[in-house]
């Protein structure tokens, strides 16, 4: 792109210079011819001094006219470059509100348009960075403050054994919360940067989901949930570790937002010869329409009261894993009715 623009500027500059030179010469020759005709009409003879004077006048006129035309031509070419230069300096200062206006549709116009788009993208990234830092600070601050408070309470020597047990339980719980947060942030960072070891293999997807359900048995048993499992025999070629993390996040999310004695439905089947579909549905609190579009954002929690344990990274990680697998994830929900997550994965053949 840069080489193309450079060639375009050189070509235009050369063309402009040639046009100015020709135009200046024509005007100068016209002036010289006019003076020559004027002398002849007056019956005067052209002396060598007169010829030299006319020649110098023509050269001077050519230089003046050429300079004026060249100035405006150079201004026309250099103005957008100067605006771009100023824009880059503003970007370097952290000002992402820069907009470069260039009306022409040539390469410079394209460059100006791309520059404006870049500034807008940088502005969005800066907003996300600040929002991310704010969310991270909040997520770390809450458990740390809780741990600090209960540690201070433990310094009271008049505590009963029951109070001591309660306080230490809270400290352990908040420490585990911090550990989960750090773990999820590392996973998210690894996935965002695609620093993923290629461990692709052929495995039974239905058996993997059953294994995840067993791993989470303590959680769904504690809430007396009824699990409706309908898993067809499905073989998948991919990264088993990533896929297990995906099912873990989605099923854990369904358990977390299900009411006691509720129902969770988990199904998997080959939708087509090239597509696998997995659905995980709960009958919990549901998600409002205004929140559905944001549930896959990092640190976003649809439960504004934060009564449910979590840090808002589980679904963001799930979405990223699905994207890396070349699939899609869709959420359908209604407040007070429940939520259904549908994951569609492309089925790769072993020889692919």
Automatic annotation (TrEMBL):
Q: What is this protein called?
A: Heme sensor protein HssS
Its UniProt entry gives the catalysed reaction(s) as: ATP + protein L-histidine = ADP + protein N-phospho-L-histidine
Source organism lineage? Bacteria, Bacillati, Bacillota, Clostridia, Eubacteriales
Question: Which top-rank group of organisms is this from?
Answer: Bacteria
A Gene Ontology term for the protein's cellular component: plasma membrane
| Pfam families found in the cross-reference section | HAMP, HATPase_c, HisKA
Query: According to Swiss-Prot or TrEMBL, what is its membrane topology?
Result: Multi-pass membrane protein
The record's function comment reads:
Member of the two-component regulatory system HssS/HssR involved in intracellular heme homeostasis and tempering of staphylococcal virulence. HssS functions as a heme sensor histidine kinase which is autophosphorylated at a histidine residue and transfers its phosphate group to an aspartate residue of HssR. HssR/HssS activates the expression of hrtAB, an efflux pump, in response to extracellular heme, hemin, hemoglobin or blood.
- Which E.C. number(s) belong to this protein? 2.7.13.3
User: Where is this protein chiefly located?
Assistant: membrane
GO molecular function terms attached to this record: phosphorelay sensor kinase activity
Which residue ranges does UniProt annotate as crossing the membrane? 15-39, 51-74
């Amino acid at each position: 792109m840069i080489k193309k623009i450079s060639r375009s500027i050189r070509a235009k500059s050369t063309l402009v210079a040639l046009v100015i030179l020709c135009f200046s010469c024509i005007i100068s020759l016209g002036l010289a011819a006019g003076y020559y005709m004027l002398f002849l009409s007056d019956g005067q003879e052209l002396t060598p001094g007169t010829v030299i004077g006319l020649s110098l006048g023509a050269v001077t006129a050519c230089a003046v006219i050429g300079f004026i035309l060249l100035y405006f031509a150079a201004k026309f070419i250099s103005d957008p470059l100067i605006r771009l230069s100023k824009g880059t300096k503003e970007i370097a200062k952290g000002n992402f509100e820069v907009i470069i206006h260039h009306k022409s549709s040539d390469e410079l116009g394209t460059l100006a348009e791309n520059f404006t788009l870049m500034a807008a993208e940088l502005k969005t990234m800066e907003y996300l960075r600040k929002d991310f830092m704010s969310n991270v600070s909040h997520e770390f601050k809450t458990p740390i403050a809780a741990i600090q408070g209960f540690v201070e309470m433990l310094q009271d020597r008049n505590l009963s054994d029951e109070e001591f047990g309660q306080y230490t339980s809270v400290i352990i719980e908040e420490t585990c919360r911090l550990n989960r947060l750090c773990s999820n942030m590392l996973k998210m960072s690894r996935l965002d940067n695609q620093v993923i070891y290629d461990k692709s293999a052929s495995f039974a997807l239905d058996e993997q989901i059953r294994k995840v359900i067993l791993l989470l048995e303590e959680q769904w048993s504690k809430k007396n949930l009824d699990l409706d499992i309908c898993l067809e025999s499905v073989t998948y070629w991919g990264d088993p570790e990533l896929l297990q993390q995906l099912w873990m996040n989605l099923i854990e999310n369904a358990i977390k937002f299900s009411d006691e004695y509720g129902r969770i439905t988990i199904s998997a089947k080959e939708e087509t010869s090239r597509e696998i579909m997995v659905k995980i549905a709960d009958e919990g609190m549901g998600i409002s329409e205004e929140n559905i579009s944001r549930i896959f954002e990092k640190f976003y929690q649809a439960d504004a009261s934060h009564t449910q344990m979590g840090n808002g990274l589980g679904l963001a990680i799930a979405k990223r894993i699905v994207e890396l697998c070349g699939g899609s994830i869709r959420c359908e929900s209604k407040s007070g009715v429940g939520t259904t997550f549908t994951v569609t994965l492309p089925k790769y053949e072993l020889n692919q």
